[in-house]
Amino acid sequence: MERNVLCKKSEIPLGESKVFQVRRLSVVVVRKENEQFYAVRNFCPHQGAELGKGVLRGAARANDVKDVCYEKPGSFLYCPWHHWSFDVENGCSMHDPENTKIKTYDVKVENDEVVLYA
Q1: pLDDT the model gives residue 65
Q2: How far apart are CA 3 and CA 68, in angstroms?
Q3: Strand-strand pairing, 37-41 and 25-31
Q4: Do the Cβ atoms of 39 and 104 come closer than 8 Å?
Q5: What is the model's pLDDT at position 96?
Q6: Given this model, what pLDDT does residue 18 score?
Q7: Side-chain half-sphere of 26: how many Cα atoms within 13 Å?
Q8: What are phi and psi for residue 28, nearest 5 degrees?
Q9: DSSP letter at 118?
Q10: How much is the pTM?
Q11: Could you give the CA distance from residue 100 to residue 84 in angstroms, rounded to a whole number?
């Protein structure tokens, strides 16, 4: 894997994401509220939308109409076209985690720089 310095840590605010081009890869880097960074491919497997143009938020789950809870705030990247959602930690789709995934990449903070290994 090749080491790719993307930006300073401060260039991605808490709870937000940013798209980077690394050679031929388009990658979305997410900085969660807990200071952890994650990187996923900027491509929805459904119809090819750029996930970096979607929103980052938690997952709403309902046990019945009046019982809605929110899980893992800021952990799911939602496709801007059809709202397919993917967990940035493992790339799994929220609705079909066994069969639908997006590529994830190793990302670390080294000397205050965000570094992608791909």
Answers
A1: 66
A2: 42
A3: antiparallel
A4: yes
A5: 81
A6: 97
A7: 10
A8: -100, 125
A9: -
A10: 0.89
A11: 10
